[in-house]
Amino acid sequence: KDREENGVDIGTSAQKLQNVYPELVTTDPDGRLGVAYDKLSIVSLAYVDKLYDMYKELEGKYNELKKELDELKK
To answer: Which of 1, 8, 26, 38 could cysteine-pair with 34, CB 3.0–4.6 Å?
Structure first.
C-alpha cells in the first residue's frame, strides 16, 4: 500500500493479487509483498473492457426478454 500525504493508505491486496497475477507481486528482502502498480493498470483496463463486453451482452439479452414480456402482456 502507498501512503498518501493525508495519512490514508490506498492500494490493493498483494496476497489476493498474487493468486491471480503472481508476476505483478514483488517480495522485498524482508519478505514483504509489494504490487507493481505500473503493470496493474494495464491488467485493470483489460478487465474493464471485458466487463463492458459482458454488460453489452447482458443488455442485449435483457432487451430481448423485455420485448418478449411486452408481447406476452398484449
So the answer is: 26
Instruction: Give the distance, in angstroms, between the CA of residue 7 and the centroid of all CA atoms in the same chain.
Output: 25
CB burial readout 25-48, b (16+ within 10 A) else e: beeeeeeeeebeeeebeeeeeeee
Could you identify the residue written with the cell 491471480?
20
Whole-prediction pTM: 0.59
CA atoms of 24 and 14, how far apart (whole Å): 8
| Helix, coil or strand: residue 10 | strand
pLDDT value of residue 12 = 83
pLDDT digits (tens, 9 = 90+) for 4-56: 566 666 678 899 999 999 999 999 999 999 999 999 989 999 999 999 999 99
